[in-house]
Amino acid sequence: MKISSSITNKWSFCIFASFLSCIILLVCLNQGHDSEKLSGVQNITLSATTSSNDSAQHPAASMQHLESSNPAASIQFLEPSHVGEHVKEINKEDHSGNLAPHPAAIMQLLQPSNVGEHENETNEEEHVCNIFDGKWVYDPTASPMYNRSQCPFLSDQVSCQRNGRPDFVYEKWNWEAKGCEIPRFNGTDMLERLRGKRVIIVGDSLNRNQWESLACLLYSAIPIPSSQAYVNVKSGDYKVLRAKDYNCSVEFYWSPFLIELKERRGKKIMRLNKLSASAQNWHGAHIMVFNTGHWWNHPGKIKEFDFFQYRKKVVEVDKIETGLAFEMAMKTWARWIDKTVDINNTKVFFRSISPEHKGKQWCYNETKLIMDESYKAIFPKSMVEIVERTISSMKKPVKYLNITKLSQYRRDAHPSVYTTKQGKLLTAAQRRQPWSYADCSHWCLPGLPDTWNRLVYASMVLD
Q: Is the omega angle on the peptide bond into residue 299 within 30 degrees of 0, that is, cis?
């Protein structure tokens, strides 16, 4: 019995010892697991609070963090300045056979949003293209942008070849900008860009010259213009080309001063604070091209009027400087643009002065360009400054179509004696009197205004 009792006691002790050992082992294992969890929390907190400099100093630690179960979530802590270092580490780990981050995560590293923005800003600064600064390049193989026979509504005033001009060299010069390439004019593409839109060209006979050019450029790009286009050039105050399939129009409004002209009791009045009556038709246009200045600089045109009126105040024309009246008119135009135009739907251009070639650089019988860089067109500097100052002070953006300098070279491109006078072609006797009849103001078509419109098209493309 003693022996049996002893065995029983020993067996009970063994069971108790085994049970106690199991409890101790479980406690140890549980403490290790909690330690691992705590360690993991500490690592995540460290990664989230580590500065970019710390990451740069410890790329291995960053890589260890990238190898966590959610690498994409870890990438957000990487600074763009250290992208190169981390990509190298990723590639190194990948080639060594260890686990590399998901490809999507690598793409996030390679394309940080702010790096791309800075690259775009740099590229824009490096590739700013001034399409108005350049030179004329002669190309003997060049052809006009349209054939004059494709444009039956072209007026006699500017149809130089039809009027007997014998030379064609003036049609073979191309304008090239310095440091960048100007897009070639594409009539079909411009029609597509104008689909469902209106273009208005407002101003004097030089803007009418530009309207005829643009109308011909687009008309010649329509497959069957006789049926797919509508043209009305009968009125001197309003001309229009409509491309039916594109539901777009190009319209010209005659307004050489841009302001309202009135006649009361036999007296002619220029209302400096009110725009031309045609302004009610300008609303809603998607592209607007304005010009003025030539008639303001023509003493004979101003003297046809008796009074300037500003609101309720009336002053005789010879009692106020023309430059002051011109500036008041420009401000009236600028206020209308600022108040009326929706820049989300409309682009506004103001074309600079188109130079005449008289006096020393007379256009008569000229077939060569002016190569003298010091040549300046004769036009009051103060009026040019008024235009530029007005535009720069406006709230709404206006693109300054600065064609003055590039046009100054082109004394060869005027109609000269191959034109009309009071609606009739010059006679042989009149052509022998160029000092009285040569037109050195307007431009042959096809010709220089086609380049003006090419620059309008280029601004649309480059924008």
A: no
